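Hey, can you fold this one?
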Amino acid sequence: MEVVRFGIIGCGLMGREFASAAARWLHLVDIDVRPEIVAVCDTDSAALDWFREHVPTVKLCTLDYKELLAQESVDAVYCAVPHNVHQQIYVDTINAGKHLMGEKPFGIDKAANDAIMEAICANPGVFVRCSSEFPFVPAMQRLCDMIERHEFGDIIAVNTGFLHSSDLDPDKPINWKRMSAYNGEYGVMGDLGMHACHVPFRAGWTPVNVRAVLSNLVPTRPDKQGNLVPCDTWDNATLLCEAVDSESGRTFPWTVRLFRIAPGEKDTWYCEVYGMRKSARYSSKNTNLIEILDYSKGGEQAWQHIDMGHETAFKTITGSIFEFGFSDAVLQMWAAFLYELVHGKPLKKFAGCVTPEETALSHRLFTAALQSHREGKTVAIDL
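Sure. Predicted structure:
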């Protein structure tokens, strides 16, 4: 089995999720490559202690990411850091010849994303992808297979989104994701947007214009000392796009909702596709359920509720009857990254990580959304 030696830059929640996935790699079957975490970096030395304790393969713990990039023993890097340092660290990683899995939004703004894309073009031997776990849920794989088999017919409408209520409490202390200096002007769009865009972009559904309504519902929050400070990012975003199906050339409405303040929601991804022959709906509120409405042969319209088990893109030792969770999606995503790195193509169309080109499209969408809200009108997206 081929081994890809990883460094992690940013040892917070998602860095630890990757370490957990690497430790469970034997859970996968029929895969000919595995990750080995050999180096970690964080500006907080306390964050490194967890890796020292739990990941015995780690040989280097450093506060300086450039020291990590200088290691010949590191083949690839997972970078999970605040958006304001994406450009510098991603570009340095790519120029160092290290394969990269980055986090969304892949640059704090379009200019940063453009710089990252230039580095990718200048280093064609470096494999670069962006993190998004959403499509690897079995119910979403079923919906994506329907897209790939053209089961929906002409698309009537698509609704996608990511809703949670983590900011519902106005007294919740501020963190970097609530400050535009670190999170960027996109606000919630940069934080959650790729999760809602991954499947439509991979389907070839391209937004050509957008009318956006953005909300900053809590303009101040307490800092660690209890002082009120500006909370200057968009909490919620609703985007109405006119999208074009790249295969048929037909247009349809695509609505995207990205809420950090969504009463009643814990952490909900959803995707709804309505077509002339079939429709399908998925929500992580019931993550093992897909709803399918088939009227291709006429007759009564009735939603069919199908419980999915552990029916994954990358096979595992778990029996297909058992249920699927978030950590399983993380493992599937990392299997997709390593499979495509080694084999040069994804296992199948919707079993691949977000491409750099898809991140660039998201930046064009979010930049146009900012203009749309600012000017109160529909704005064409620069394609």
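The longest strand covers residues 205-215. Let me know if you want another pass with a different chain boundary.
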